[in-house]
Please model this.
Amino acid sequence: AREGNLAQHWLDKLDSFEHYITPSHVREKTLQWISEFHSDETRRDELWSAEKLDQHDGSDPDNFPTCTSIMQYVIQIDKERWVFGSWKGHNITRRNLLQFNGKSLDANDIRHDEPGYRPLPKLCDCSDGEREYLMQSLEGQLHRGGK
Model:
């Protein structure tokens, strides 16, 4: 909004809203699930290509359950939950970072088969705010039945 030179009274209005802060019990559960994932050799060592993830776009849920990827974790989306169509079969880490940084998702989201997809964003290159936003996105899926 600031970069777009939004009028000051609108900036003040936006600044007056509190932002979401993850409750400690939610974060603790998420970190527990991540720890369990890394402790499970059968899950931790399974590698997914972008092409494999793309097959899980919701078009054939009987053979390829709908999945997304956030922070390089592949999550099977609960079939009872609504999710953005653009998330299905897609690594949404870059998309989340675009949104956090106020960039156009439509103009800048890159699918795996498009030029510029690689390199994927690295968490070590993200700011604290970006990492927190990505973690909240991951939590949003996990705590709504994703696995």
Summary: Residues 71 and 122 are 8 Å apart (CA to CA).
